[in-house]
Amino acid sequence: MYIPTILRFLYYCGARVGETIEIKNEDVNIEKGFVLLKKTKNRQHRLIPLNEDMKSALITYIGYRNKMPIKGIDNPCAPLFVNHLGKMMSTNAVYLHFRRILEKCGISHSGKGQGPRVHDLRHTFAVHSLHQMVKSGLDIYTAWPILSVLLGHHDIYATEHYVRLTLEIYPNLIEEEGKSIGNIFPDIPNKTNPV
């Protein structure tokens, strides 16, 4: 019950597993449409806006979770994502369930660097988000800092790996952005070789 929602949330917003399992009930505001990540790698709170699909997934999860006969499961300070005992999920439990899903799907994973990782959902989020922003008309140099904030990076240089990966997967973005960059930096005649 909790693993599909956690995996969907990880892909939806690019959060880290550790940030996600630390979410408390009070950090989720379905009505206003956001989740507040408080315990982040860079110790900066981050607001995650929720679209209707993610709201629906969280509402369904919380509804089933609250039916568990565990005292205080819906307490504001209680963890959002819990195991069958009502205890906060561990990162290892998320990784273990992910590996089981891979196994059931026939996707091999032989250990570190030998198959898909849960963290790859973060990369997928970054690649898809950047592609969508540029595809919708946002300049890549405007989209880059936005992506950096969404990922919770201190600066845009930490996001460089994701941008490079996106450009490798979607080479047409370079062509599209090249057209707009050409308008910003026109050809300047060289004094020794005038055009």
From TrEMBL:
Read off the PROSITE patterns from this record: TYR_RECOMBINASE
Which InterPro entries does this entry report, sorted A to Z? DNA_brk_join_enz, Integrase-like_cat_sf, Integrase_catalytic, Tyrosine_recombinase_XerCD
Tell whether DNA-binding is among the UniProt keywords. yes
| GO BP field | DNA integration; DNA recombination
Name the source's superkingdom: Bacteria
**GO MF annotations in UniProt:** DNA binding
What are the entry keywords? DNA recombination, DNA-binding
What's one Pfam family the UniProt record gives for this protein?
Phage_integrase
The family this protein is said to belong to: Belongs to the 'phage' integrase family.
Name under which the protein is recorded: Site-specific recombinase XerD
User: Organism source for this protein?
Assistant: Macellibacteroides fermentans
Lineage of origin: Bacteria, Pseudomonadati, Bacteroidota, Bacteroidia, Bacteroidales
